Amino acid sequence: MTSTLHSAGTTIEGPWDEVMALIGELHEYAHSLGYLRVHTDIRVGSRIDKEQTAKDKIDAVLRKL
Q1: CA 61, CA 16: separation in Å to the nearest integer?
Q2: pLDDT, position 49
Q3: 4 beta partners
Q4: Quick one: which of 41, 17, 13 has its CA closest to 27?
């Protein structure tokens, strides 16, 4: 699993179950610190036709510039 911090949030890449479990663990951790309410917005994308990382997408845009 990899993560990349950027201006609009954090991109987390990895197997579905691992990523979703991580999000749950982060919520549990925040609650254990005393936060009463935790809100996460997620945008999910998946594909099965080829391997492609977030870095691959960025590189493709930079090549076109």
Answers
A1: 25
A2: 95
A3: 11
A4: 41
- Residue 22: how many CB atoms within 10 A of its CB? 14
Three-state secondary-structure class, residue 50: coil
Give the residue among 9, 1, 11, 16 at the shortest CA–CA distance from 58. Answer: 11
Specify the amino acid at residue 38: V
Rg (CA), the chain: 15
Contact call for residues 1 and 15 (beta carbons, < 8 A): yes
Locate all alpha helices (DSSP H) within 1-65, ordered by sequence. 16-32, 54-64
> What confidence tens digit (pLDDT) does each residue in 22-61 have?
999 999 999 999 999 999 999 998 889 999 888 898 899 9
Any idea how long the chain is?
65
Banded model confidence at residue 15, pLDDT cuts 50, 70, 90: very high
